[in-house]
């Protein structure tokens, strides 16, 4: 009803093979019910439905998992359900579980009866997906949501921005891909501009069940799509939300926590991250609001099918 209305009112750029995606009423949860692929539906109260509920309600129950990745299955044969929950590498275990629990409620409600569904909660602090297909250890580039800030890098720094951004992202990609099987995540920053007054912050992450090669492939394809993905413009911020990997960058807004409690991510800063003293006035991350105007913080969104 209200979410249905919302999805009608939102402005999306549709590619030729589009699935329906939308945002929940609070604007915190973005999801794709995979209508474009049409992987089929389950019947309410069927075994599949029961298995899905059981799986999702127990997904984060293993309190030994402190690295933000949950992958499991429940059921047998055609009623087997698979799910992956992944938290952004800088999200603490308690927040991670909370984020995935909230996502569980939203995803099952918003993608009711869909056998395949994916959603990202609260600035992509976590991703939750469920499927009847085997989804572990494989690289899935879609369904994807790509968003880019409609404010371009200024003309005077355009080339430098492009080069600096790509260089940063490729470095981070290598770090993330070579990460352990519990965390494939890297963050870093680069400073550009005439007065060194522009800092690009970036974050990349793969589901850690991917091999180094597959993680590399997923992130590499995402980086190579800049700026072709996005009306051939390099916005000052951008996000690639895919089932297997996540990439985000922002200019002059630090959107991730620099203090990590996970051991493997402390080594994941390739370029010197400015100390807080040298970046005193960076604004809060822009909201992920979609529209077709050109104001800062406004993103355009493109959706892509699984294949
Ligand atoms: C599943 O449900 C959706 C939404 O109700 C519908 O559009 C789609 O055609 C259904 N798919 C199948 C295979 O029945
Ligand atoms: C599913 O089960 C619940 C709880 O037993 C029941 O209230 C509901 O009516 C059932 N729905 C359908 C469509 O069978
Ligand atoms: C989950 O939802 C509850 C209730 O709406 C909210 O208080 C909490 O902050 C949410 N968790 C996260 C991680 O956003
Ligand atoms: C950076 O410095 C240049 C040159 O002084 C100025 O034009 C630009 O607005 C500054 N950018 C920011 C983000 O402060
Ligand atoms: C979950 O992922 C880990 C690697 O991160 C892997 O060792 C494990 O086998 C996976 N579980 C399933 C059910 O595929
Ligand atoms: C950004 O760049 C694109 C492509 O060059 C251009 O069409 C657009 O007008 C620019 N936007 C702004 C706000 O300058
Ligand atoms: C979003 O863009 C549309 C079309 O450009 C415009 O009509 C609408 O007023 C904008 N909404 C907001 C909240 O800026």
TrEMBL record:
Keywords: Repeat, Signal
InterPro entries: GNK2, GNK2_sf
Name this protein carries in UniProt: Salt stress response/antifungal domain protein
Disordered: region residues: 258-295
Gene3D superfamilies per UniProt: Gnk2 domain, C-X8-C-X2-C motif (3.30.430.20)
Domain Gnk2-homologous: 30-135, 141-254
The organism's place on the tree of life at top rank: Eukaryota
Biased composition (Pro residues): 271-288
Leader sequence residues: 1-20
């Amino acid at each position: 009803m209200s979410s249905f209305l919302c999805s009608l009112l939102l402005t999306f750029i549709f590619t030729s093979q589009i699935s329906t995606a939308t945002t929940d009423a609070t604007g915190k949860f973005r999801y794709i019910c995979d209508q474009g692929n049409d992987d089929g539906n389950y019947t309410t109260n069927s075994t599949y439905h029961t298995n899905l509920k059981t799986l999702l309600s127990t997904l984060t129950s293993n309190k030994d998992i402190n690295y933000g990745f949950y992958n499991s299955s429940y059921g047998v044969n055609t009623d087997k359900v698979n799910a992956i929950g992944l938290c952004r590498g800088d999200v603490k275990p308690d927040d991670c579980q909370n984020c995935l629990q909230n996502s569980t409620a939203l995803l099952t409600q918003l993608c009711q009866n869909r056998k395949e569904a994916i959603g990202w909660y609260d600035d992509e602090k976590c991703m939750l997906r469920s499927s009847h297909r085997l989804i572990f250890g494989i690289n899935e580039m879609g369904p994807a949501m790509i968003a880019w800030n409609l404010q371009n890098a200024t003309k005077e720094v355009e080339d430098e921005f492009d080069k600096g951004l790509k260089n940063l992202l490729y470095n981070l990609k290598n770090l993330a891909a070579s990460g352990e099987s519990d965390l494939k995540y890297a963050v870093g920053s680069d400073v550009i501009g005439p007065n060194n007054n522009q800092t690009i912050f970036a974050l990349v992450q793969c589901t850690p069940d991917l091999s180094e090669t597959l993680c590399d492939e997923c992130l590499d394809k995402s980086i190579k799509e800049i700026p072709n993905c996005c009306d051939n413009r390099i916005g000052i911020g951008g996000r690639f939300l895919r089932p297997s990997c996540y990439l985000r960058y922002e200019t002059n807004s630090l959107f991730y926590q620099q203090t990590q409690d996970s051991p493997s991510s402390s080594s994941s800063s390739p370029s010197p991250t400015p100390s807080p003293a040298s970046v005193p006035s960076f604004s809060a991350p822009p909201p992920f609001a979609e529209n077709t105007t050109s104001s800062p913080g406004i993103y355009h969104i493109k959706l892509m099918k699984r294949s």
